[in-house]
Amino acid sequence: MITVLQQQYAMTKGSRAFVLNFIETEIGADLNTPVPAYENNTICYLLEHVASCYFNWLGYFALKQPVGQLNDTGFNTSVLIRQLYSNVDEVVNAFLENFKDKLEIPITGVHNRNGQLSATPLQLFTHVLTHEFHHKGQIMTMCRLLGHIPPDTDVSRLF
Q: pTM of this prediction?
């Protein structure tokens, strides 16, 4: 099953690449423009939020890595966002390697918002992927609200 999850993440990265390429070539300074319909959050904010989800669930909760502080760094350029997602890729690879033979064995721990809980690695992996796609849709809507016509970023583009 681990091979399937690795392939699934590769497709997720491919879709993410379309988003990041569009942001680099078309969005420019609007990366940091507040969008009123999204509580004045920015595209950059949502990209950091998605990365934070990977770090919180896979890195800190599952792998028990030390908790880091994303917001202190200020990932406010496309170059810095790409570096951030390179770190996400490292966490995902470590997670998949560590749990490759135990995807159904629950991990119990404390999550900052949810307190004590238990989830399998498969559940955690599914959560972070669906979370990314949820916010990717919001990011594309934000682009449209800022006057940019977003490309198709669905995984089906990779077929």
A: 0.93
